[in-house]
Structures are given as C-alpha cells and as structure tokens.
Amino acid sequence: MKYHKLLENAKKPKGFWGKKMISSMNEGHYELTGWALDHINFERHYRVLDVGCGGGLTVSRIAERIGNGKVYGIDYSALCIKHSKAQNRKNILCNKVKIVLASVSSLPFEDCSFDVVTAVETYYFWPDKLNDLKEIYRVLKQNGRIMLVFEMLKTPEEPDKWKAVEDKVGIKTVTEEEIREMLAKAGFEDIETHKKDGTTWLCAIGVKK
C-alpha cells in the first residue's frame, strides 16, 4: 500500500504521500545524480536549468559546482517548488538559485539562456517528448548541452524489469537507441550516452550547435 501510494505521486507530488515521494526521490536519486553530473564539466560562470527539479537536491548539488553562475529549477508541482525552495534557501537569498513553477512544455525563459539543461528521472512524464526537447533546445545557448538521466532504462537483457512501475505510474521506459533518436530529431548533435555496469542507468548528452 505504501509503495503504491508513493508511485502514484511520482509524476506530480501532492499532499502527504507527495511529501514522502519528494524525500524518497532526493534520497533514491542521490548516487545516480552524482554519477551523471560527473559527465559534465560545469564552468564557474555557467547558467544551468534543472527540469523537473523535485525536492531541489540536484539544484543544490549543481550550485556547489559553479562559482558565480546561477542555477534555475523548474517543476509543475507546487509541492515540489515549496520543498525545492526550502532545500535551496541560502542560495536563493544570495541570488545563486531561482526556483520557478513551470512546465517543460512552455519554459518561461528567453532563447539561448542556458549553458546546460539537466533532467534527472523526469523524461518519462513529459507530455510531448519531441516538442519538449525542442523547447529545451530553444533555451540553450549555442554549444549548450542537454543531459538526460535515467534510472529505468529498457535493455535487451531485462526488457520487463520496470514493467510493474510502468503499469502503476502509467509511463513507458525507453531504450538507449530511442533516446539517441529523439535527441537527434530535436536538433541535438554530438550525442553521447553513458551506462553504468550492473545497472540500468543511462546518462545521455547532446549539444546544440
């Protein structure tokens, strides 16, 4: 029962179980996120956007990697925004972090605003994946990079590993090939993918030329 209630709040956390889910995401994605962030060399001046920022821990970890840059986090869950602001309170006060209620489908930023856009374990929930990737492409600077991070990759060895989660949450996991294809369709180049042995983790990076 508890597990099912948590899964029901994976897409858009709200209420008591939403709070539990946010805490679970911060803890459960910690190692995955650290592994993925190591694939990007964050310059001190970078402006970074984290899409689907959840409880805000990824935002705070990126903020640690930049100096005089700025990190933005967006989420369409009001509860996530509340928790993310609390997580990043000090950096918000010194204008190093800004948290915004928004959807990936309509990013409230001007063209060519960011050096890097990250999305950790959120791609599954996007309503129109190709157009949402194009929206991220729009807000990236020239030579800016997108980084998509997945825990639940569909692999030939274990195609049904995440089926119970898919059925309960109403999502579809993706293959490495599907991610590469979607990034290319959205206009990204120099696409690279990284996997961690013994897991179904994937970090996919594309460049806006």
UniProtKB/TrEMBL annotation:
Residues covered by the Methyltransferase type domain: 49-147
UniProt KW Transferase keyword: yes
UniProt xrefs under Gene3D superfamilies: Vaccinia Virus protein VP39 (3.40.50.150)
Domain of life according to the entry: Bacteria
SUPFAM superfamilies named among the record's database cross-references: S-adenosyl-L-methionine-dependent methyltransferases
GO BP annotation list: methylation
GO molecular function per UniProt: methyltransferase activity
Pfam families linked to this entry: Methyltransf_11
Keywords from the UniProt entry: Methyltransferase, Transferase
Stated name of the protein: Class I SAM-dependent methyltransferase
